[in-house]
Structure formats: structure tokens, C-alpha cells
Amino acid sequence: MSTEFAVAFVMGVGSIGPGIAIGLLVSSGLQAIGRNPEAASKIQTNMILGIAFAEAIAIYALVVALILKFV
Amino acid sequence: MAATDIHISISAEEIFTIGGFAVTNSIFTSLIVSAILVVFAAIVRSKLDTKTYRPSGLQNFAEWLVESLHKLIYDTTGDLRRTRLFLPLTTTFFLWILLNNWLGLIPGVGTINVIHSESVGTETEQTLQLTRQAQAQDELIFPESIEEVGAPIFGEAPLDAEVREEIDKPYAVKVPLLRPGSADLNTTLALALISVLATQLFGFHFQRFAYFKKFINFSNPMMFFVGILELISEIAKVVSFSFRLFGNIFAGEVLLVVIAFLVPLIVPMPFYGLELFVGFIQALVFMMLSLVFFNMATHGHDDH
Predict the structure, then answer these.
(1) Cβ-based neighbours of B199, under 8 Å, separated by 6 or more
(2) Kind and range of the H or E element at A2?
(3) Which residues pair with B81 in a beta bridge?
(4) Any idea what DSSP says for residue B113?
């Protein structure tokens, strides 16, 4: 019971930060593309890299949750 | 919830052994992927058209692949020498990880099982089980002995039930035959180590001993602490590389299994689309990050 709560808690709390970060990244990325559509491909690549960095934090939480759940 | 019906294992499972070396399903799939890439390269090489310079079919595809990756790397490094040096390793990372990720989405991967006879527990436990089994058989063959001895045997009746359970427990374990290599932490850790070691080698190749000034610097106390932080960040790179790839692909596998378990029809389809995208992005991210780190290592602190 307490383990399941911990799993849900880790995942829930761990997703807050990356969620905000990805939102900010995409919003400013889209703004940049809107201002300078020619640079879209470069901005997109860097945006996806940034998203991957932010997402990695959620993935760490996920790995901890999976370890708690299955190991 | 009948969670026992879903087979989810966080680590790769052994499917057979070659001379004491355990071959897990991840290694098996990785070898298949490597074989596909090697065969593809060999076929393209043998059919290479050097007379008319008019590529067709497979060669077109291979040229498109190499040219677009070359352009991607050149855009990052802005230098032909570095591009030539980084292209083989980063392209291999990309293609190998991409194929591994996408292979996990083919129906049958993770669902086709092989039966692997797994020796349960240590040797002493096994012999204990055998003796218990023998005891149980004895009691079956000579039922009158129970009546003769009487009470003490009846006192051990619960143990008899335990022995029954242990005997009923299957010794052969069903294990999925295929599991994408990138859904195993060992594989991603190996890739991360290769990438970080290559970073050091490229740094040393371009800057010689000046490269290590980044880590060990006694010029002033501030730079000394920055050096320590740089050392830690190299180790953190290994962790983040390996966990990012493993977490994404393994989470994708779990997601697909759970969705297919809840609603087997039509609903999993958009998730397959998502996993195709995630598989591509993760391969690209691994390649781009390696490339950026390689490129950063080759430029000295004073260059820019």
C-alpha cells in the first residue's frame, strides 16, 4: 500500500517540473519560429534537444518509480 | 487488477547460455540489429555503382542517409576535419539505437516466449527440494508407515503441503525471446560509456595535454573547483545518457503493454505512433548530444 503510494507520489511530483519546463521551451520556440520562420529547422532541433534534457528529469522519476514497483 | 497477466521485467532475461555466458533476450536482439546493419552495409557496398555515377534504388537510400547525417554533423561542427572524424561513431549510434527502438514495436517482440529452464535457487536449496520430494514420494509409496509412527508425522503435515507447493512450482520459466536492446540498462550504460570515453579521446586528440587543464587546474582556487565540477559532470553524463535512453524506451514498452492489456483493439494505435516518434527522437538526441560533447571537447577553453 505504502509502496504504491510512493510510486504514484514520485511520478506525480516528478512530472511537475519537466511539465512546466517543456511548456516554456515549446512556447518560446514557437515564438521564435513565428518571428523568424526561416530559422525554423535550427530552432526545432535545439528545442527538441532542450525538451529531451527537461524530459530526462521526468524519466529519472519514472525509473525510480519503476524500481520501487518491480524490484 | 490482474497484474499477474502482464509480463513486465525491468531487467533483461536470460534465454540461453553459450559456455557459461548468459545470453539475454536484449543481447540477442542487439545482435540481430547489428547483423541487419552489417548486411545492409555489405549489400550496398557490393552493389556500389562506380561506372555511370547514376545511383539507383538501395544506393540512393544509403547516399541520402549518409548525406543528410553528414550535413547535420557539418552544421554542428562547421569544420570538415571534425565532421569526417565524428561521422562514423555518431552515425553508428543513431542507426543502431533507432533500429533497436523501432524493432521493439514490431508485433511479436516481447510477446513470443521461449521456455527457459531456470535452476531455481542455489545448489543446497535444490538438494533440499530433492530430499523433500523423495520424502513425499516415500510417504506416497508406504502409507502404512504413517500409521505406524503416528502423531509426529501428522505434526509435520503443514510441511507436506509446503513441499507440494514447491513441487508444483514450475521449474521452466517463460521468457520473451526478443527485447529491444535499448530497453536494457546494461546496453544503454555501455553506449553511454563509449560516448563519454570517446569524448575524452577526441579531446586529447585535438588538444593533447591541454585538454586535461579542464579538469586539473591549479592556476587559482576558483578554477580548481571548476575542474572538480567538470569531473563530476563527466560522470553525470554517463548516468543521464544511460537513464534517458533506457527510461524512454522501457517506459514505452510498459505503456504499450498496459494499454494493450486494458483495451486491445484500435486504442493502442496512436500510442504506437507516439513510440515511433519517441524512438526516433531518442536516437537523434543521443547522437546530437554525443556530437555536441565531442565538439565541445575538441575546442579549447581559449579558442572562442
Answers:
(1) B234, B237, B290, B293, B294, B297
(2) helix A2-35
(3) none
(4) E
Give the number of other Cβ atoms within 10 Å of residue B50's Cβ.
5
CB B242 within 8 A of CB B188: yes
Residue with cell 536516437: B283
Specify the length of chain A in residues. Answer: 71
Strand, coil or helix: B73: helix
Q: Please give the Cα distance from B12 to B15 (Å, whole number).
A: 9
Report yes or no: B247 at the A interface, CB cutoff 8 Å.
yes
Summarize pLDDT for B55-98 with one digit per residue, the tens.
778 888 999 999 999 998 998 888 899 999 999 999 999 999 99
With CA atoms as reference, the chain B residue closest to A42 would be B75
Cβ contact (<8 Å) for B247 and A71? no
| C-alpha span between B200 and B238 (Å, rounded) | 13
* Interface contact flag, A49 B247, Cβ < 8 Å: no
Residue A14 has a pLDDT of: 92
Q: Which residues 71-90 in chain B show a CB within 8 A of chain A?
A: 75
Q: Which residue of B has its CA nearest to A67?
A: B10
